[in-house]
Inverse folding.
């Protein structure tokens, strides 16, 4: 295996000069830079990234911890983050926590050992002090962990109000909100608060069905929807906490012979691409997923550059009406 000494010898330069080329330090002519890289390719030399990061005190790698990349919202979010980071000269190290505190802690330790420059958290299951002591820039997605940690979110309260008001305007008289576990104290809980307030103002009955603490368990979505219709078959308007949840509502309505939107009107959340693929296509509250992901990366990079960043960045949402309403 070729070493940096082999590259220096073949190209006729000092090891120090070759190192400066690799680490982009000091003035190096384009001709010299080209000769070094051509020789590296010829000798199949692979720089030691860990050694280079120790020298630069920078790895150009960002950590991303999310609950589950299989979930449509997080897969789209991660894709946009990776593209934004790569365009800025960084790579993403992706970790699935599955909302397991031990797993999340292990991943945080791994990211620290690998000297990532900063971490984006789309999951948080640990005590606040464990995040405060990470000793590297941190940004959270849709989670307010601590006043000292900046976060990016969409306007969850507005999303809940838009969804509920549409169901009311369509004439629904008994509503249900299927959502994640409200005890987790996430910013997404504001959707339910807006739903309850709007339903009360409209003078209609409003039920809330919560998942367990594993809010991304698809099997639980199916059982929760079945339970809702078994206990309240007269429900005629449903606000689902994600487009994936809404898909299970469509499935159960088909099984029960309940026509959507004639007998049951349905609004999902996120507006991931799959929302428009179903028949009927799902009305949804669109989160600006791309913008959220890009902003999270940009805020992290600004912290790395020593710049001040706002503690909270809240982006607007939009109602996308389709066939389920």
């Amino acid at each position: 295996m070729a070493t940096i000494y082999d590259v220096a010898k073949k190209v006729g330069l000092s090891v120090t000069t070759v190192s400066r080329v690799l680490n982009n330090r000091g003035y190096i002519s384009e001709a010299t830079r080209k000769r070094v890289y051509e020789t590296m390719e010829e000798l199949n030399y692979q720089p030691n990234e860990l050694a280079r990061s120790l020298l630069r005190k920078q790895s150009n790698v960002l950590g991303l911890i999310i609950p589950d990349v299989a979930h449509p919202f997080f897969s789209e979010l991660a894709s946009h983050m990776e593209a934004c980071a790569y365009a800025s000269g960084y790579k993403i190290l992706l970790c699935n926590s599955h909302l397991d505190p031990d797993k999340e802690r292990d991943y945080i330790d791994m990211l620290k050992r690998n000297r990532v420059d900063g971490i984006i958290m789309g999951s948080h299951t640990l005590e606040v002090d464990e995040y405060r002591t990470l000793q590297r820039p941190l940004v959270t997605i849709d989670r307010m962990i601590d006043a000292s940690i900046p976060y990016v979110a969409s306007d969850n309260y507005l999303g809940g109000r838009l969804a509920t008001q549409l169901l009311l305007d369509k004439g629904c008289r008994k509503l249900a909100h299927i959502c994640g576990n409200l005890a987790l104290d996430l910013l997404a809980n504001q959707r339910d608060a807006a739903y309850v307030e709007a339903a009360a103002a409209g003078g209609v009955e409003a039920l809330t069905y919560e998942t367990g603490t594993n809010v991304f368990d698809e099997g639980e979505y199916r059982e929760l929807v079945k339970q809702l219709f078994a206990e309240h078959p007269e429900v005629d308007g449903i606000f689902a906490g994600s487009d994936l949840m809404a898909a299970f509502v469509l499935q159960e309505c088909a099984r029960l012979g309940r026509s959507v939107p004639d007998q049951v009107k349905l609004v999902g959340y996120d507006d991931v691409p799959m929302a428009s693929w179903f028949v009927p296509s799902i009305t949804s509250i669109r989160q600006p997923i791309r913008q959220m992901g890009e902003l999270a990366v940009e805020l992290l990079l600004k912290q790395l550059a020593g710049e001040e960043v706002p503690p909270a960045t809240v982006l607007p949402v939009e109602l996308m009406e389709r066939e389920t309403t």
Remarks:
- The longest strand covers residues 61-66.
